[in-house]
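Sample 1 of the test manifest.
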Amino acid sequence: MILDIGFETMTREDLEAVQLRRLRSTIERVYTHVPFYVKKFKSAGIRPDDIQSLDDLKRIPFTEKQDLRDNYPYGMFAVPMDDIVRIHASSGTTGQATVVGYTAKDVNTWAELMARSLAAGGATRGDIIHNAYGYGLFTGGLGVHYGAEKLGACVIPVSGGNTKRQIIIMKDFGPTILTATPSYALHLAEVAEESGISFEDLKFKYGIFGAEPWSERMREEIERKLNLTAVDIYGLSEVIGPGVAIECYEAKKGLHIFEDHFIPEIIDPVTGEVLPYGERGELVFTSITKEAFPVIRYRTRDITSLNPEPCMCGRTHIRMNRVSGRSDDMLIIRGVNVFPSQIESILMEIEGVEPHYQLVVDREENLDVLKVMVEVGEKVFSDEVKRLQKLETEITENIKEYLGVSVKVKLVEPKTITRSEGKAVRVIDNRKM
Amino acid sequence: MRVEQLSVFLENKAGRLAEVTSILAEANINIRALSLADTSDFGVLRLIVDNNQKAVDTLKNRGFTIGKTDVVAVEVEDRPGGLHKILEILNASKINVEYMYAFVPSSGDKAVMIFRFDAIDEAVKRLTENDVHVINGSKVYTM
């Protein structure tokens, strides 16, 4: 269902007019209230008046994660602290945490975008949403929560963890929509199976999964094991949280970016040059309606491409393809660029292999060694050693053929790869450089 | 004529085999025969036990990957040339042995070998034709 027909199906011409008006007002505000942006604009010799068209956006320098860290905690806020009603923060696992703030209007905007997203993913007023995204500083849990209430659906704020209890709730409360990270969804399926509960006996119709990259094959597996229609949701706290882009359940082919609130660009991660539609590169966002924490040309580090083709669902907003990696997760193995997602697609091409893998990089005698750990499930297991060795060889050869890099494949027992309750740990880089 | 064999995927890590035997012992399952094939990274443990369903359930519950394969238990005369006679028959019929291992019955004076064939029906037919005793599955579990 399209929740906001007016904005979500707007013609390109009208949409661009809205974008330009909102962009100019955002630029004006950050130039008045955020010293960081004043400095940035001045160093590039730009004044707010110079932004006369959407095309002028590319004259503005990028904002990077490091800029947010440098202005920790509140340096990037564009309103006085009195107007801030909510704080979220990134986990900071890869460095200092980044803090984002919301005004009451921002919280409302976010709830509206999440309500639109849930509707695009199949939810309606009458649905019961089992929300297994973590509640807290992470934006996932509360993002879905406010969106669900805005939509008028019923939300179970189960949060992450305590999987056995979640299974009981799923059985007894009869939720119809599941929201979780895709790896946690698969974890739920495993635990349900172990507890002798079949998803066929549960009431789920749709699942809205995100907060980590996943693949088409993982979607097939989730849909089969959880007996529901699965769509991808995208967002990041720096831009607003979940609800920046959503896949419609009608097409399930790329995520509509809410362009009346965010302007996307794809750039070459090395040169910073803006790339045309269809080309793969790093996704950059400018938020054009946020009050407390606007970002101008923020580099997400997510690798994807944009698809301007009309969609069967009727939305006119541009679609981004599945995020296929992170420009900073990119591993350089003996000079070859490797994204974990590429290894995942190759594994998923092999009949019976499940998406449970981990990449371990070591440096042995000054050479990079990439080890691909793959769990042996029942479908690929054999009583004959030679068949298992054949599987190892097949994976090694396919990776060599598609990516041009030699790897060592190691078959491991099920569940030896950390299945965190949140995000799966895909890469362990032991290289000391 | 077939015997159901279980196989277990094991990483080459200290204590993994003992873990399997301890789980089976706890569940009061008797191992009738066993063979381990391994590489530098992993091993495949093959087992004939007295209660397959219980063994499968218990090991799966503990997170092991389990496979089931049909194998054949063949009585071998316990004297020089006993095994050779059987391999000759198979060889003459061009039947490939994937692997085999010994089974020690607790009674009787004959030795028993477990064979894994790709062409299992053909193998049983040739052996029987040549007066080799192929032992019934149900009998093997409790021999």
